[in-house]
Amino acid sequence: MPTSTRLKLSLLMFLQYFIWGTWYVTMGPYLNETLKFSGPQLGLAYGATALAAIVSPFFVGMVADRFFATEKIMAVLHLVGGALLLYISTLTTFGTFYPLLLIYTLCYMPTLALANSLSFRQMTDPGKEFPGIRVLGTIGWIVAGYAIGVLGFGTSAGMFRTAAAASIALGLYSFALPHTPPTSTGGKVQLRDILGLDALALMKERSFAIFVLGSFLICIPLQFYYGLAGTFLSEIGVADVSSKMTLGQWSEIGFMLLMPFFFVRLGIKWMMIVGMLAWTVRYALFALGDAGSGMWMLYVGILLHGICYDFFFVTGQIYVDKKAPAHLRGAAQGFIAFVTLGVGMFIGSLVFGPVVDAYKLVDASGAVGHDWSAIWVYPAAAAAVVMVLFFVMFNDRVETAPAK
Q: What pTM value is reported for the model?
């Protein structure tokens, strides 16, 4: 790959995840403390990205792959997204905020897959070339967290205005990306192709079915972290939440580099079990920690993100790639993303809102808080139950199914 192309794709990944990182972590404290939204409303707001993840395959499969060049679609989506983010920053009622946030996520989420596909199309050996480029996305997320902290936008609408500026910049920059024309200009569009439903044939094998079920169930308590961690830390008095949360991304990079070492020694089943255990431990630490003498527990809980994410999600993607025959690998990855990041995470967002409201506390002065120790028990217990069931029922044989 030419150096100029590598640099262009690296900047693409940096901006792509910088945009998301500027608002996703600190939206919770902003909605909870500044706009005074309820727990269920907070859950719906964080469920917007999951809903968009469910819809995105339709957009990518029906439009992006068939009618327009990828870089032009990305340009339009990010420019429209930037305008939406600017408008969102002015909204203060849930009835106006949520519909616009949902529309924005419907613009943004397809660009994740589009950025990947555009990058892959420029590579001769994606297995070797993509990781070095994709890591710039994680760095972009980290830089976004520090930027929001330095700018003091952790509980203000400034986070959305920062994201809007980055989105408009990426929209304009997208016109300079390598030309990537549509790959499927003919043929009938079928729902099963878009959602990867051909991968359902793999469900006939018990181990794969258990893997899918376990992945779906574990994503329900996982959404507690993505939707509530920032709100939790801010409410209990932790300063500069956005930059502290980036420790999880640093951990993610470190454990990604160590994964080959652990694969040889643990294998897929134990890698995933360790990942599930890490989620349970993380939530237990959040339940026990505080912003004073127990701050070390919160730091450890954040730093566990590398194990939580890499050992579960990345290992799961590798398992799917090994189990599926060559002609079904793309469909299988799409199906797993639909089940976990889409359906599983959305259900999780519906669950954590009522739990948060059930443990709302109001002191004598009228200030609203929450019994976070009680809240974190729920995802900790749920993750532990899924882990035990997965340990008992899952077999990690990875013989590739015969091609048909």
A: 0.79
